[in-house]
Amino acid sequence: MTEQNFSIEADSLVLEPEDLVSGDLLTTLDIVSEQGTLGDEAGKFRVVDGRVSIGHSLVYKLPKPKPSPLGQRGENFYLVVFRFTLHPPESKRRYQNMKLTIKLLNPNALAFKLMPTRVTTEEDVNQSFDIGFSVTPSASPKTSIGANVKRTVTFKKLSPIIEACGDGESDFYWLFSKPHGMETVEHGSRRVAAVIRVPDEVHSLSATIQWKVSLDRSFIGGWRNVPVSVEPITVNLPLI
Asked: How much is the pLDDT for 200?
C-alpha cells in the first residue's frame, strides 16, 4: 500500500481503469459455489465460477483546513482508493450484480464521502469534496468564519451501473449492476474511493473487504441464479 500527500498544489487526482500489475496485487479471490446431490452434504464439491483480484489500497493524506475552529475535535482526513479487477466469469455464467462492502474496524473512523456516488452511463466522472467548517458568531449572525480544502477526483471510463451507500458510517458499500439490456456486469479493472475521517489519536486503521456476488448459471431449460460466496479479507491502512 502507498501513502502520498494530496498537497495544496495537487488539488485533483485522476484515476485510470488500469490493469493491476504484480506489484499492485494484494490477492486474488475465488467466487465459488457448491454442486452435488440435493441434501447430500458428503457429495457436494466446490466449483469456481469467477475470480476477483484485489489491489493494494492507495492512501492520500489530505491537508487540514486552516485556521481550525476553537474547540473542534482533532481529526485527520484521508482519501483511500480501493482497486480491484473482476475477471470474466467461467463458461455459461453471468454476473448479475456485485456488492463491495468495506467495514472500518475502528468505529470512530467514518466515511466522509464516497466516490463515485452514482453512475448510470459509461463516462468520465468528476467528483469534488470539501473538508472545512463554518462558524457563525452569536453576536453577529450575519457573518461567519470558516475555511475549507476542496479537492476533485476524476474517474476515467466508468462502466455503469454503480451506486454508493454509507456516507457518515463505518460500514459502507458500492453496488455494481448490469445496465438494462446487458447480460452480465462488465468485467475489468475498477477504482472507487472514500474520504475517511479519523480522530487525531488513531494512527493505524484496518478494514474488512467483503464481496457479495449474484450469479446466474446456464442449465438445461434456461438460466438460474446460484448462491456463490467470496472469502472476506482484512487489510491494514496505516495512517501517518
From this structure: 86
Please give the angle made by the CA atoms of 123, 90 and 103, to the nearest 5 degrees.
60
Could you say which DSSP state residue 87 is in? P
Cell representation of residue 182 = 446487458
For 197, other C-beta atoms within 10 Å of its C-beta total 19
Q: Which of helix, strand or coil describes residue 6?
A: coil
- Give the Å distances, CA to CA, from 24 to 6, 52, 127: 20, 14, 24
Strands (DSSP E) found in 25-144: 25-35, 45-55, 58-62, 75-86, 93-104, 110-115, 118-119, 123-135
- What is the rounded CA–CA span in Å between residue 217 and residue 225? 6
Q: Which of 105, 69, 65, 90 is nearest to 184 (CA)?
A: 90
Give dist(CA 225, CA 215) in Å, integer.
6
Residues of the chain with confidence (pLDDT) below 70: 1-10, 36-43, 65-73, 132-148, 240
In angstroms, the CA 99 to CA 111 distance is 17
Provide the whole-model pTM: 0.86
